[in-house]
Design brief:
The chain is mostly beta strands. The chain has one helix and nine strands, in the order H-E-E-E-E-E-E-E-E-E.
Length: about 140
């Protein structure tokens, strides 16, 4: 307990912020994680990849354009057409994002996939509204 009123006044003045009418408020420091302590981002799982076909460009190697609903896929991944009877598997030969060649198709992006078919008759399973999904994780 303080016995002196002078010490009490000094303590109150020390705890009170100084008022300066022309000074700008100082921004609060933003906490940053050091690279050593930052946790690495988890790698997305290709097992959850799904793409809804919006458009089909037929040919020997058909190209499908659509929206990636979830997951990601890369060149060389094997996909299957959901609901095709018998099951149809295709392989990604090339990929485009916004008319530029890419390496991967990520979630919430519109992409074009150049596909390699096992048989020419498999092209009938590709149609707008169908879904392509990954069949196995890497």
């Amino acid at each position: 307990m303080l016995r002196s009123s002078g010490a009490l006044v000094a303590l109150v003045l020390a705890c009170r912020p100084a008022a300066t009418p022309t000074s700008e408020p100082t921004p609060s420091p933003v906490p940053t994680a050091s690279p050593a302590t930052a946790a690495p981002a988890p790698a997305p799982s290709p097992a959850g990849f799904r793409l809804v076909i919006d458009e089909l460009l037929p040919g020997d190697a058909p190209m499908v354009m659509g929206h990636v609903v979830e997951g990601y896929a890369e060149i060389g991944d094997t996909l299957e057409v959901v609901g095709a009877d018998p099951p149809v598997r295709v392989q990604v030969r090339a990929l485009e994002n916004f008319r530029r060649p890419g390496e991967a198709a990520a979630q919430r992006s519109d992409v074009g996939l150049l596909l390699e078919l096992a048989a020419p008759s498999d092209a009938t399973a590709l149609a707008p509204g169908r879904t392509l999904r990954a069949i196995a994780p890497r």
